[in-house]
Amino acid sequence: MRLGLIGFGEAGYAMAKSLDGAIPITAFDAAAADHARGPLICARAAETGVILAEDIRDLADQADVIFSLVVSDAAVPVAEAIAPALSQAHFYCDLNSAGPATKQQGAAAAASSGCRFVDVAVMAAVPPFGHKVPLLAAGPGAADLEAKLKPFGFEIEAIGGEIGAASAVKMFRSVLMKGMGSLILECAQAASQFGATERVFASAGESMGMDVMLFANHIAPRQVQHAARRVHEMEEVAATLKECGVDPIMSGACAHQLEMFVKRNLPEKMPEDATLEDALRVLKEE
Questions:
Q1: Closest CA to 210 of 190, 167, 180, 238
Q2: Could you give the angle at the alpha carbon of 106 between the alpha carbons of 103 and 112, nearest 5°?
Q3: How far apart are CA 267 and CA 183, in angstroms?
Q4: CA gyration radius, the chain
Q5: Per-residue model confidence as pLDDT tens digits over 60-78
Q6: What is the pLDDT of residue 285?
Q7: How far is the CA of 109 from the CAs of 5, 7, 68, 117, 258, in angstroms?
Q8: Which parts of the chain register pLDDT below 50?
Q9: Rounded to two decimals, what is the model's pTM?
Q10: pLDDT on residue 35
């Protein structure tokens, strides 16, 4: 197996580092030629033994399984760009945080190549897990992809269904998880002014049958730390809900909150092992 990565950001780097040379990896990242990000990408490629392709079509020549790891807005254009270089021998796997409609558009763009297009949903942040991050796969090639990746330690599950079925699980899970992260921060920001946070969470925990403070310490800091990535995901979630005939009132508000975090550069101010208290401190800063 030869793995190709379109986009060599945090996710691609974490996967390559975790695989530790177990399989040949080639990556293409347009930012490799950028003066700001280029040196870091090249250094990470050298560290992990990843070959940097000259262009996206060169990548297709060097890999039979290709992971698309770009922002959701670029998912379809990237599929269109690489399609002429793909063949029936390729698995083209869209791992982007995009909704079912975007995945289906990508599949349509690549259809003429005859490749096996697989809708893959990444169900957790990649860096802690590397290539063992939980993945869900859907589409006609999903079962074959699972069989191909499992021997190398990938935690992938083919769930059946058409293209879009895996991304739907991720999108609608985010309605809950990112939405709760936003609510917890909003609640704690106000409650902390009265010294009421612990009692509010304890009371809520009694009703919900769970340790809300433990959950808050886990989810709230990450809502701020990963705001730049999550705002794009929640915008895609809101678009997906609209396509389903659901007014994305809460998800739209969540996206707006995340956008405010990014505009205030709050993710950069968060310590790595942050708690709810750290998040509240950063949110108070002007």
A1: 180
A2: 140
A3: 18
A4: 20
A5: 999 999 999 998 889 999 9
A6: 86
A7: 18, 19, 14, 10, 31
A8: none
A9: 0.91
A10: 81
Q: Which two tokens stand for residue 119?
A: 């809708």
Q: Could you give all domains of the chain from N- to C-terminal order, each with its CATH number?
A: 3-163 (3.40.50.720), 168-284 (1.10.1040.10)
Predicted pLDDT of residue 272: 87
Place of tokens 């956008």: 259
Distance, CA of 191 to CA of 173 (rounded, Å): 27
The separation between the first and the last C-alpha atoms of the chain, rounded to the nearest angstrom, is: 50
DSSP the chain: --EEEE--SHHHHHHHHHHTTSS-EEEE-GGGGSTTTHHHHHHHHHHHTPEEPSSHHHHHHT-SEEEE-S-GGGHHHHHHHHGGG--TT-EEEE-SS--HHHHHHHHHHHGGGT-EEEEEEE-S-HHHHGGGS-EEEESTTHHHHHHHHGGGT--EEE--SSTTHHHHHHHHHHHHHHHHHHHHHHHHHHHGGGT-HHHHHHHHHHHHTS-HHHHHHHHHHHHHHTHHHHHHHHHHHHHHHHHTT---HHHHHHHHHHHHHHHTT-GGGS-TT--HHHHHHHHH--
Phi, psi of 266 (to 5 degrees): -70, -35
pLDDT the model gives residue 83 = 97
- The pLDDT score that the predictor gives to residue 286 is 60
Label residues 133-169 b or e (16+ Cβ within 10 Å = b).
bebbbbbebbeebbebbeeeebebbbbebebbbbbbb
